[in-house]
Each structure stands twice: as C-alpha cells, then as structure tokens.
C-alpha cells in the first residue's frame, strides 16, 4: 500500500473591491488578460507571464474562485504565488525574456527603414530598462 499524496492548496489573498461594478470590470479584465496570456504561449512575439500576472491581480480584486484556481493551477500557480509572495521571477524566465527581447530589438534594427531607426532605439532603451529591472528582482 502506497502512502497517499497530500494536496496542499494555497489560499487566495482577500482584497476584493466592495463596488460590484468594479468587481465585474476586474473579472472581465482578468479573463481578457488570461486569454492574452494563453495566446502568448502560442505566439512567440507575445509575452505570457505579464498577462497571467495581470489576470491574477484582477481576479484577486474580483473573484476568489478564479484567483484560487489560478494560484493553484498546475502550470501557472507557482509562478503567480512566487510573484505575489516575493515579487520573484525564475532565473530561466529572466534569461528567456532577455534573449527574446534582444532578438526582437535586433530584428527591428534590421527591418526598419533608416528614417525610422529612432523607433528601434527607443525600444532598445526601454528593453534594456526591462532587463535591468528583471535581474534586480529576486530569483524564484
């Protein structure tokens, strides 16, 4: 007889809005961000993590049920819990985001016409700031 595996569920944080209109708005935004996060899994140019974290933040303010579901999700749960508890990001995610951001920015420099290169430089500066910010966060 094998010992049973205990399942531990994380409880959602309670910071719901008292206004029903605001709760509905956050609920709808949560689903929109979650859908964009799922699309981001399939499309290489679209990020997943920021949209999943935005969905978690919206659901924390609107729906205990959906927030509970997300923080205990098989794939997204640990990532969301790490962010909510310590603002921590896994090291592999930092490197992956940095590499993808760098490749995307380099493609802009290659593809944009010469009179539009100022746009690529703006993206490069903002992207560099994002990379610095990411690596200043604790590792999950």
Automatic annotation (TrEMBL):
GO terms for cellular component: plasma membrane. The chain crosses the membrane at residues 21-43, 91-110, 116-135. It is found in: Cell inner membrane. Coiled coil: none annotated. InterPro entries: DUF454 (IPR007401). It comes from the Bacteria. It is a multi-pass membrane protein. Signal peptide: none annotated. The keyword Transmembrane helix applies. Keywords: Cell inner membrane, Cell membrane, Membrane, Transmembrane, Transmembrane helix. Its main location: membrane. PANTHER family: INNER MEMBRANE PROTEIN YBAN. This is Inner membrane protein.
């Amino acid at each position: 007889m094998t010992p049973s595996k205990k399942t531990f569920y994380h409880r959602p944080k309670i910071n719901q809005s008292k206004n029903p209109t605001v709760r509905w708005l956050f609920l709808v935004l949560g689903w929109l961000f979650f859908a964009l996060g799922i699309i981001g899994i399939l499309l290489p140019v679209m990020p997943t993590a920021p949209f999943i974290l935005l969905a978690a933040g919206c659901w924390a303010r609107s729906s205990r049920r959906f927030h509970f579901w997300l923080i205990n999700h098989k794939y997204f749960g640990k990532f969301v819990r790490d962010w909510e508890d310590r603002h921590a990001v896994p090291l592999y995610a930092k490197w992956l985001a940095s590499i993808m951001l760098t490749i995307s920015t380099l493609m802009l420099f290659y593809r944009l016409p010469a009179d539009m290169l100022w746009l690529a430089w703006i993206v490069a500066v903002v992207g560099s700031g994002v990379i610095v910010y990411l690596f200043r966060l604790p590792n999950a």
